[in-house]
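hey m, so remember when u said the tokens were messed up on ur end? i reran from scratch. heres the input so u can diff it against urs
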Amino acid sequence: MNEVARALIGIMVFIGIVWGLSEAKRGFAWRILAIGLGAQIVLALLMTRLPIMERAFRWLAGGTDALQVSAARGSQFVFGYLAGAPSPFVASQPAVSTFIFGLQALPAILLVGALSALLWHWGVLRVIVRGSAWLFQRLFGVSGPVGVSTSACIFLGMIEAPLLIRPLLPRLSRGELFILMVDGLAVIGGSMMIVLGALMEQRIPGAFGHILTATLISTPMAIAMARVIVPSERSVDEAPIELTSPYRSGLDAMVQGTLAAVAMAVNIAALLIVFIGTVALLDIILGNFALGGAPISTAGILGWLFTPIAWLMGFPLADVGNAAQLLGTKVALNEVIAYGGLLAMPADAISPKGLLMLTYALGSFGNIGSVAILIGALTAMAPERAQDIIALGFRALAAAFLTTCLSATIVGALFTLV
């Protein structure tokens, strides 16, 4: 069976799983799901096959490089050669990488956080968010607050976007809360998009453009999938939402944006230490057991569990094992570790098609740790809705994972067909 046929079967299986997760199987909203799938396909075609988009990706890659270089200048001033400045020592092992993720990748979050706050204060991002919210309201019939939060998630991230509608969160229905949760877990927004784009640029040209595209084509399907799994009526009025700046000046925006980004960078570093350490501990324990003469490992277990999914997505058969392992790593740990694992693989370990599909499949916050972070944030904003938010957590993760699987499946099929 060829890759496109497997991808088509995979799309049908994934949609079948969505139907199985739905709370309204009899009145299943096939039309809404069809709109989401159609939007995914059209956006994927436009953004991956139009020559003008290829030029736009090159421009975006240049912008990403400029941000990364600018952030590096600042971090090198503070941390010196540890952040990539010329070393005062002669390397005894030049072939060994001196890249330090915490000092050479994470500082970009600080710069992007400051610039995002400044662009919000100036109104640039607010105009884009209003336009996107209007489009989502027309396509999927979501309420104004939900449209604002889901569109803002592309630029601000899964925690910052709901803050824009914080006063209205307690009044949202279960279905509307579910949309916010699925969308937050199905995309990569804000500063992390820049960091991961710069990280993957060494392996795939125009990586930032592809990660941005992954977010853009996943957003409509995330909304559609959430609406059919937990359907509900609008619960808030349609009065226009005022998107205002919480900052007193441009300088205040940059300062507050930087401080918020510091907390995010520290959280990312701490979670990486804990998760990678946990995996190492599990591997030490599992290494005492063998299956078929080979030691058991977390990578092997995750690869075995996710192999059927990778097969259904239409990955080249030679890539299925590695792809399954990385998909499992992304869900069980996080996207940074999964992308890092992809970069650590030899250049010939993944085909060009598999590499492109993984760039899309791994491009979301959909992992167990993010579910905990999202639940904690939303319950802090709307404590009276804690029971609903907690109950929806892992179903939201499943929906977000299916969304990114569909995005990668569609992009892979287009890679073969177009």
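this time it looks ok to me. The mean pLDDT is 86. if urs says something different then somethings off w ur setup not the seq
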